[in-house]
Amino acid sequence: MPFKPKNEPFPLPRELYPPDWFRRLTAAEVFPGRPEAPAEIDLGCGDGGFLLAMASRHPERNFLGVERLLGRVRKVARESGKAGLANVRVLRLETTYAVEWLLPRAFADRAHLLFPDPWPKKKHRRKRLMCRREFLRSVHDLLKPGGEFFFKTDHEPYFEEAEEVLESIDFFERMAWPAGDREFYPETDFERHWLAEGRRVRGLRLRKMG
Ligand SMILES: C[S@@+](CC[C@H](N)C(=O)[O-])C[C@H]1O[C@@H](n2cnc3c(N)ncnc32)[C@H](O)[C@@H]1O
What is the CATH number that goes with domain 34-208? Predict the structure, then answer.
């Protein structure tokens, strides 16, 4: 659905609008008030179903959604406001720039990349985030020691390629991820949709090493 501008302030209270886009932010700039609380980052958060479910289950943690589409960003900001979630912020930005250049290092306890664009055409494969070693390295650097990185996709070739790339990487270790544990890990909006269509969803749970 096209984005319809609304007569509302910019940025909305839960939107993160960096004071400077060309230096790394501090934890206090991302989560003012309680920068020391555990932090989770949802990369490509879409309409925020997963982010908001997690944030309401874990008020003791901070949650940041990163999303490039303005309409989705504003929706997450509005919905989190309506739900009274003081632990949510949302950043309108491209994921790789946010992770590689803007967000603090050793900052997140958990990062999530859930149903990213699969780039199915052969000529576009190098755009797959999970298959780019430099992207994986920057997610590693974003995480605190022992932090975790979660990836899900309904696109089998993407999953297989990500597994292959990870075999040559020594800075993440693969963890068990029991299927169907909705308490631990709520379904995302896209996941619900794909599962209803009968698609198979695959996931990787990785722990930072070193
Ligand atoms: C298939 S949707 C998944 C949304 C959500 N994670 C879910 O599972 O319901 C992918 C989302 O990632 C966003 N997105 C895709 N590429 C992105 C990028 N490079 N940086 C930021 N957001 C991106 C899209 O706009 C879209 O909202």
Answer: 3.40.50.150
CA distance 47 to 135: 23
Pocket test for ligand 1, best of 43, 68, 128, 187 (most atoms within 8 A of CB): 68
Q: Supply the pTM of this predicted model.
A: 0.95
Is the CB of 69 inside a 6 Å radius of any atom of ligand 1?
yes
Question: Would you say residue 1 has pLDDT above 80?
Answer: no
Break the chain into its structural domains and give their ranges.
Answer: 34-208
Q: Is the CB of 94 under 6 A from ligand 1?
A: yes
CA distance 30 to 137: 21
CB 195 near ligand 1, within 6 Å: no
